[in-house]
Amino acid sequence: MPVMKGLLAPQNTFLDTIATRFDGTHSNFLLGNAQGHRGYPIVYCSDGFCELTGFTRTEVMQKNCSCRFLYGADTSEHVAQQMEKALEGREEYQAEVHFYKKNGTAFWCLLDIVPIKNEKGEMVLFLFSFKDITDTHGKGHHSSKREGRRRRKSSSHFSEARKRGQTMLYQLTSQFSRGGKGEVNLGGTMIDKPSIPEYKVAAVQKSRFILLHYSVSKALWDWLILLATFYVAVTVPYNVSFTPYEDTETAERSTLVTDIAVEMLFIIDIILNFRTTYVSKSGQVVYEARSICIHYVTTWFFVDLVAALPIDLLYAFNITVTSLVHLLKTVRLLRLLRLLQRLDRYSQYSAMVLTLLMSVFALLAHWMACIWYIIGRKEIETDAWAIGWLHELGKRQETPYMNSTVGGPSVRSSYIAALYFTLSSLTSVGFGNVCANSDAEKIFSICIMLVGALMHALVFGNVTAIIQRMYSRRSLYHTRMKDLKDFIRVHHLPQQLKQRMLEYFQTTWSVNNGIDANELLHDFPDELRADITMHLNKDILELPVFKGASRGCLRSLSLHIKTSFCVPGEYLIRQGDALHANYFVCSGSLEVLKDSMVLAILGKGDLIGSDLPGTDQVIKTNADVKALTYCDLQYISARGLREVLELYPEYASVFATDIHNNLTYNLREGSQDENSDLELFLGTSNEFLNIQPLLKDFSPFIITLSSTFCIFSLKIRYFHVFTDCVDQGCQTHFSSGTSIVQFDLKHSIACKRDLDLNGILSG
Questions:
Q1: DSSP-derived 3-state class of residue 477
Q2: Region labeled Disordered — which residues (predicted)?
Q3: Are residues 52 and 154 in the same domain?
């Protein structure tokens, strides 16, 4: 019995775990690379951190995780040195720091630094958590003054801060699972130190009492339950209709043992369903017992419970059973609803479909035969005229009824005759040897004929259409799957590569069901096709980088956007390869690697790729991009993007500037060196604050502070934007008090793509 296994590949869910467990008061965090040779760049920042500081993710990514961009006039240099020392020593650290937001607003922050290890025990990341304690810091400061001046040297305020820090650190780390037990002495108090999740591929943690829904044992059990369901669908109507008219008391208990066994099977099935995994809407296999119970209770539990009521135990305890008890057995037919749920498991086989259709047809005939027999019995009991079909059957078999209740044909003969009549009426108009005589029988016969016409058209008339509709694509799937397996066998591909190919094919087929969107939309008008593609790709088109594009430009871009899918461990891009597209992460998470070091962690909504090169320049990638979880991606090819920008030159210059501010990570080879050359070192003098408004429009410039002397170094990308200015040899001046910077743009460098401008800022 084929079932949907779900997505079973091991995933690195570190980012999802951190984001989930930091939900709430501790949602402000950063992740920094602990293996960097040139500082410790930030590889991920949460939305909460962006809201707290006012910086965007693009502005924060790849900056040093010492967070000097948050420093200001009142930031303690001692704390900054302690942070650097903790980073160098890869140690945990906690302090209260006076930080500044992007708009210049100061705030007190409780900072926690925790190193993150991988499965090898190596420090690979730093986890920075930020807690705004401006309100509590002020209260603590005043309370420390009220304690008396005799404790001024002992710094009671710092003691209060340490106590609050212990509480916050415990609240922070207590959210994580305890991988090991240790103790840390903070302020003389011994507390447990829970572990932080490791940055590694998460192993599937399943209790041995959890049953896999795709296992062989579960498949065999489902077949057994299927047979039991059919048994119930056949015996329950028969027992309700024929058993009350059996001649002996033991006849009604002839199937007692089997009925009780089926009831026990249904009860056991309920218990097993509480411990059986299932596939969530996202395609993930759920192993958690609590989630399994909630899912089952909210879906099929009550139906299964009602269908499993042990009514037959009344016979076992010799309790007198009335006809109403027999009618209660009909609730077991609710079990057929479970059968409808599993029909899709059998629908891929034509033989199984035909068998199920014929079984449904025969089951309907069986139910109508039971009703036909009840009508005949009621006619005998209430009608003085001996014209019912049972009277006629008794006369032909020479077993007539005496006094309307005694005698008559056997139950076996009556059932066979009733089934014969209903089947002949459903498939044709009948032959007349068993016919309706009374009014009730004629009315029911009319109903049978109407249902028979519907069933004949539905079952027999549509069998061919159902098979053609269902198996045209299924046959294509099996054809491609067979070709894929033949290819694997002929070329002797290794098992790991074979598994990756099969899983990718099955997953992509389940997403698009073998439908080629480009081929499907090929015959549609361009206007309609553009509207459809804009709807399909609305997530990527809503990025800030496309805000300046006109609707016509967006429609043209949407025609070049395609979708892709990555499984955990799959490399989307390899270092040194040619980069042909920019990628947008729709779901899942990826990591950017260089020399086995994590440079960035990408999540939903991130954009990776490169800026626009020259017309004939081939973009080489500077890092690997590897999927951590199952990822859905959208991408636009560099060639298609270039073609659209040539059609809309007014947007091309805007895009060339905005792409730098919207790329989460620039994969173009050499972009990291350019970023290091783009650093501007200025003194910590307050005069620098006066020239910030003059520099706000120069988004390509990266500005940092130096406490020794002031060296101004700028590198302007996309020199073609400034071609007119260079051709005229213009001069640009920035002044701030007594500080002047002058640039001479010479004609001799106009042919270069990159322009280096160096000057000295005296102050």
A1: helix
A2: 136-162
A3: yes
